[in-house]
């Protein structure tokens, strides 16, 4: 009787564990996107709610709330239970939906759908590359992060002083490239976090954190694409 060449139960178990871990990451990310979409659509459907969300005070509070959660969740997640971390992530996605609703109402429904489908295509392609490539993307991630900081600074300068529409369009196009690169890097990094020896609780919190990172990649890619390609009402 011949032995099965290359058969290793430990490797098979590790591969199955990684698959479940990544499915958990993407499942949480897509549920957060669904929450954001439902909340945003609800706000857009009511002029009363939309005007309330677009008011300076409310929009400022929403911005501060989302900014605080995005910063504090990665820093404090180790001290949280998996359920609390997930709940905070869901709450964050709800706040984002309310925050971006005044932005989405500017564009036609067709533009929003087209931007979403284009985002899904870009995100899916770069996710697949980040998951399957054997190349270390650390250098790419570092380069993209520096590029992102540069774009943020340049956008602030352009918004406050130069106010050049052509320059703004260039920065938006560069942002699409940046977040495509970050998507591939982040997927590879999230994949590398998986370790079958750590407990389910830690893996659950890591999955939530990974979902938050990919959610932000998808959201920023979508917002930049709709600014770049969207038709205004």
Walkthrough of the structure:
With 233 residues, this protein is mostly helical. The protein has eight helices and no strands. The protein has one domain (9-229).
Secondary structure tally, helices: 8
State the helicity in percent bands: over 70%
What is the chain-wise order of helices and strands?
A: HHHHHHHH
How much of the sequence is in beta strands? under 5%
Task: State the low-pLDDT regions, or none.
Answer: none
Structural class: mainly alpha
What are the defining features of this structure?
233 residues, mainly alpha, 8 helices, 85% helix
What is this structure, in a nutshell?
This protein has about 230 residues and is mainly alpha-helical.
Question: Secondary-structure map with pairings?
Answer:
Layout: H1 9-45, H2 47-54, H3 56-76, H4 82-104, H5 109-132, H6 138-162, H7 165-193, H8 200-229
